[in-house]
Amino acid sequence: MLISGFDLFSLLCALPAILLAISVHEFSHALAASKLGDDTAKVLGRLTLDPIKHIDPIGFIMLIVVGWGWTKPVPINPRKFKKMRRDEILVSLAGPASNLVLATLAYLILYLGQVVFGFYNEIFARIFYNLFLFNIVFMVFNLFPIPPLDGYHIFKNTFIRVIPYRFFMTYEQYGMFVLIALVFTGAVSGIIVTVVNWISSLYGLLL
User: Fold this and answer.
1) Where are the domains of the chain?
2) What's the pLDDT tens digit per position in 119-175?
């Protein structure tokens, strides 16, 4: 996951949004897996909105300090799914989809509060804008088709019968290096900023 740096006030306004985005994303993976027949995450206590269960301490500190970090991946056992490839795709989609829903709700609340009812409060505005922003960032970042992100699992299970399996084995071995390179060269940020601006413009047109 990728965010930019903050001053203290901005950080305090951002933390609730970050924690909620993480919790909802990981909970949605666990819930989808449970509904599709895999209770692994539930047994391990990951079917919860408690952010403590989903945060990797080092990854969270990195996220706050340098703007790039990670969470604990939700464990799944694809063998418990009725349709392994389809269900793994659905589980992988659940996290980003939940972020899109949460971002949309945050945008609607912000719009209704400021535009419809004429209410403005800086803390209110920052928290809900951050909730919109970080959920879009998490959604887009996790949809990159690079191991170990959700987008990779969607890509792999979609094309595993078309692309030789050895490609996926090699890609999984070196995928993290690809991801790090894209993050620190700014390529990921550029794509995310473009998508965030596009979605903001789209919501602006719809509302």
Assistant:
1) 8-206
2) 778 888 899 999 999 999 999 999 999 999 999 999 999 999 999 999 999 999 999
Active site residues per annotation: 26
- 3-state class (DSSP) for residue 82: coil
Q: What is the pLDDT of residue 140?
A: 94
64 — pLDDT class (breaks 50, 70, 90): confident
Contacts of 22 (CB under 8 A, 6+ apart): 1, 51, 54, 55, 71, 138
* Number of residues that this document lists for the chain: 207
Dihedral angle over CA of 59, 76, 35, 139, nearest 10: 40
Q: Tell me how crowded residue 65 is: count the other CB atoms within 10 A of its CB.
A: 10
Q: Which of 168, 32, 2 is nearest to 92 (CA)?
A: 32
